[in-house]
Structure prediction request, 276 residues.
Amino acid sequence: MSMRRPMRVSGLYNSKRGEFCKLIYVHRSSNGASCVNGEPVNITLRRAGEAAPPGSDFRIVISPDMKYETGDFLSVHFGVNSGETMLKIEPGNMISVVCPGFIGASARLDVFRPISTGVLTVSDRGYAGERSDTAGPALEDLASIVGAVVKRRDIVPDEMDIISRKLVEWSDSDALELILTTGGTGLSLRDVTPEALMSIGGRVAPGFGEAMRARSMYYTPRGCLGRGIAVTRGKTLIIAFPGSERAVRQCFEAIAPALRHGVEILNGRDADCGGH
Prediction:
């Protein structure tokens, strides 16, 4: 892998107040508007030396040679333990906040291409409309943290052939890079999601299931009963999560640090994965 020169935030400029900032906190308001330090603003992106885009209340100035496209994600790292702030580049170089956090002048930036993703809920009761699906929407929201864009979303019953057909369709016909399923990973005789993945998958990626079970057992000794697994089919990574929203959130947290890099390696884009 070729070494890349680090990309940095060159400056943070509040055009409303006519001042530069050293550190800001970006987040979303209750109605989804992007905010800087608690104030709803229009955030725009520009390279150093370029004219400011019109209608910008707050400007994030980046390295002049930095390459990006509309729809890409910006991952911002500020300090050793600051976590990761995720932004999305919208049309007109507008910025939306995906994952809140701090951005400082000289913070390191990585540009991430969007990951085409499908979320599949496996549940007899959910398919019949007898139970509200909260785990699927939670997975969809969590996936955005790693730059995933959900292109397909569905609910199917606990039937192995139906699950398998849907996974094959999304992998082969729709060419999704990542598929996340929720439900059907327990020990009930109706829980057949792992078997569906095994029937259509080419290779097993055991670390994902191991990490999810380890995290689950931190919260409950029953976590060892989970049968979540991950397989690959061509260039698609397919991961089976538990069926409850709480378990989905716990397990996603366990695998999130490796998830994006795994997809990029599988698709031959590991050189695009910054910070390695």
Residues 245-266 form the longest helix (22 residues).
